[in-house]
Write a sequence for this structure.
């Protein structure tokens, strides 16, 4: 099912390559299939097109972390916290702060 949805999003992007929500939908499908690098690339497009989309930073960090790009993941979450603070998205900010602190699963993701 996800593959056919990917094809739909890809077709939509041919017509509307500057539509952040289509990129976000495509990224969500890639995440379901654990295609981390593809998801990260799609999410980079989301934040390029809509720098205030806090959920995209959160997902981007997750995709990057899962693909082994720890430093990039931490940068994405740090940027996401800054955006969430500026836009008032307190819930997203809290979640990304927890990821940065390594509060989830006690892994110490980005804490030094």
């Amino acid at each position: 099912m996800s593959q056919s949805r990917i094809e739909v999003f890809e077709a939509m992007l041919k017509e509307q390559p500057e539509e952040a929500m289509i990129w976000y939908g495509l990224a969500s499908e890639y995440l379901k299939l654990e295609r981390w690098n593809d998801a990260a690339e799609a999410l980079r497009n989301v934040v390029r097109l809509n720098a205030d989309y806090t959920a995209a930073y959160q997902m981007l960090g997750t995709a990057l972390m899962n693909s082994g790009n720890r430093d990039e993941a931490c940068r994405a979450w740090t940027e996401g916290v800054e955006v969430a603070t500026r836009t008032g998205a307190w819930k997203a900010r809290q979640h990304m702060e927890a990821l940065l602190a390594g509060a989830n699963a006690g892994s110490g993701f980005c804490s030094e």
The two ends are 41 Å apart (CA to CA).
